[in-house]
Design brief:
The protein is of the alpha+beta class. The chain has three domains: about 80 residues, Phosphorylase Kinase, domain 1 (2-Layer Sandwich), CATH 3.30.200; about 160 residues, Transferase(Phosphotransferase), domain 1 (Orthogonal Bundle); about 70 residues. The chain has ten helices and twelve strands. Strands 1-2-3-5-4 form a five-stranded antiparallel beta sheet, covered by helices on one side. A five-stranded antiparallel beta sheet has the order 8-9-10-11-12, with helices on one face. The chain has a two-stranded antiparallel ribbon with strand order 6-7. Helix 3 packs antiparallel against helix 6 and helix 3 runs antiparallel to helix 9. The longest helix is centred in the middle third of the chain and has 22 residues. The termini are far apart. Keywords: ATP-binding, Kinase, Nucleotide-binding, Serine/threonine-protein kinase, Transferase. GO terms for molecular function: protein serine/threonine kinase activity.
């Protein structure tokens, strides 16, 4: 771990974070890297800034020790030539963050199980070193140049500033029940946030926003029983995620190893691709020479309809009806019927 050096050439801006901006940069040892720049605040005294820099250096040394294929490596900490900013130098992950996938729409079961498995491996390595991430969310899961998921942006959040950070960084939807009531984090709160991350990736931003704000619901208890599921999500996935998000840490999945054991057997077939366009939800999957489609029109709570059919992928042949509502039905019936359809 290097100390304060000033040999990094800062390039274009590639992202924003609560603690600072992220830029592409060139490092004389590691080549192309990503750099998080944390600048001195106007309100900071020279003494406070000096103390903060010393704390950042100690933290960077801790982070550099957490070497693992599913953790973004922190190479070193550098100080800008004017001494007014600190720069975390880390591996550049060319695939970007999973925030993009979340914003785009629901991810497939296969994709979520893959990245979830990789995140669990990295999280297990952190926990084995006595470290808590405290900030598991789609934006902090990065894909490297080979598509491997790596956990990033850890080590800066502490229990002391968790609420202020979470509120400003849009992270309070990922604070477990006990954090709201006790203000303390643990490896169990990382597991809770991992469960929330899986739920978000499976459903995408548009569906997620249809529910009440989690930050207003979690502290009341029983939040995992209130999750609103897309009907194609299998019951085994639902049970696994709910077990990660239990209010009582003692009743939650006990360790990353236990989560891995349950997670590894979750089904990924059939692999439906889901798209949400306002009130309409569409699914599609291909099997052999045919494409299977499902269409759910959600005009209102009382007026919904759905239909499912298969069609020849190459355009040769006839469409085959597979099911449907047979007219307008209420939202509960439509959801229940679709859930049963996808079970088959």
């Amino acid at each position: 771990m290097a100390g304060y050096i000033a040999e990094i050439a800062i390039g274009k801006h590639i992202g924003n974070g609560h603690f600072g901006d992220v830029h592409l940069a060139t490092d004389p040892v590691h080549g192309q890297v990503a750099v998080k720049i944390i600048a001195k605040k106007n309100t900071d005294t020279p003494e406070k800034w000096a103390a903060d820099k010393a704390e950042f250096l100690t933290e960077a040394q801790n982070l550099a020790s957490a070497a693992h294929p599913n953790i973004v490596p922190v190479y070193h900490l550098v100080q800008s030539p004017d001494g007014l900013s600190i720069q975390y130098c880390m591996k550049y992950c060319a695939g970007g963050s999973l925030q993009v996938a979340f914003d785009t729409g629901p991810s497939t079961l296969h994709m979520v199980r893959k990245v979830g498995t990789e995140v669990l491996l990295g999280l297990g390595a952190l926990h084995a070193r006595g470290m808590i991430h405290r900030d598991i969310k789609p934006a902090n899961i990065l894909l490297d140049e080979t598509g491997v998921a790596r956990i990033g942006d850890f080590g800066l959040v502490t229990d002391k500033l968790i609420f202020g950070y979470a509120d400003k960084a849009g992270y309070n939807d990922h604070l477990a029940y006990e954090v709201w009531h006790q203000g303390m984090t643990s490896t169990k709160t990382d597991i809770w946030a991992f469960g929330m991350t899986l739920y978000r990736l499976l459903h995408g931003d548009a569906w997620y926003k249809e529910s009440n704000l989690p930050r207003l619901e979690i502290k009341n208890g029983g939040f995992c029983q209130k999750l609103k599921w897309l009907p194609h999500i299998p019951q085994r996935w639902r049970r696994a995620i709910r077990s990660m998000m239990h209010d009582d840490p003692a009743s939650r999945s006990q360790s990353v190893g236990q989560v891995q054991a349950a997670f590894s057997g979750l089904p990924t077939d059939p692999e439906w691709v889901c798209e949400i366009n306002g009130p309409q939800v569409n699914w599609a999957r291909q099997q052999g020479s045919r494409t299977f489609r499902v269409e759910w029109n959600r005009t209102s709570q009382r007026k919904q309809s759905w239909r499912a059919w298969s069609e020849p992928t190459n355009g040769t042949g006839r469409n085959r009806a597979l099911g449907g509502s047979g007219g307008e039905v209420g939202s509960v019936q439509a959801n229940n019927d679709l859930t049963e359809f996808f079970k088959g």
